[in-house]
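Re-run with default settings, no changes from the original entry. Doing this only to confirm the output is reproducible before filing.
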Amino acid sequence: MSLSALFRGWSLVLYAGLATAPASAAEAQGPPLMRPGNVDARLDGALSVLPLSVEGGATLDVGVLPLGAGTLSLGAEGSVNQCALACWVPNLFSERDTSRRDFYAFGRLGYHFTVADRNYRKVDLYGFVLAGVMEVRTTVTAPDYRYEGRDRGPVFGLGIGGNSFPTAGSRVFLGGEARVRFGMGSFDLRLTRGTYEFTQEDRRWLRLGLSTAFFVGIRLF
C-alpha cells in the first residue's frame, strides 16, 4: 500500500471520529434531570411571608429511585429563620419589643422531572414534601419585665422548585423554590426580669407561612 493511500485512509477514520464524537458526547450528556446516585448540595437564602422574615440554610438532595419519567429523591435541610418586618413594625408602636428566631431541621422527599421543549436540557424541575422538627425562640422586653420562651415541635410542608444549569455539562446550578410550612405548639416561658402574668396567647405559637427561596448549588456526583 502506498503512503498516499495510507494517509487517505487515516484521514477518513479521523474525520469520522471527529464527526461522531460531539453527537455521542451530547447524547451521553442528556438533560440535567437528577438520576439515582446524583447528589446535589446547595446554600439557600429565603424571604418568608406570613410572617415577614428572612432565612438562610443548606440542603443536601440524593437521587435514589427511578419512577416513571423522573427520579425519586431523599434529602435533608437545615435553616435558621429570623423574624424581620413582622416583628420590627409592631415594635415601633408598642412598649413591648419582640424578637423571634426559629431553627428548622427537615427531611425531604422529592420527585424530579423535566418538561420536553421547555428548556429540558438546562432545567431540573421537582416537587417535594417536608417533615421535621423546629425549635422556636422568642424574647419579649418591656419597661417593667422581660421574658424568654422556647419550644420544639413537628413541622410539615410542601413545595415546588427547579435547578437551572447555565451550560451543558455544568455541575454548578442556580435555582429557586416556593414552599408552604406549618407548625404549632406552646412556649415554655421564663421570666428574667420584673413581674408579669402569662396569658394563653403568650404561650401559644403558630408558624404558617409561604416562603420563596433562592440558592446556588453543585452536583457533587
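Confidence is low (pLDDT under 50) at residues 1-28. The first strand starts at residue 39 and ends at 49.
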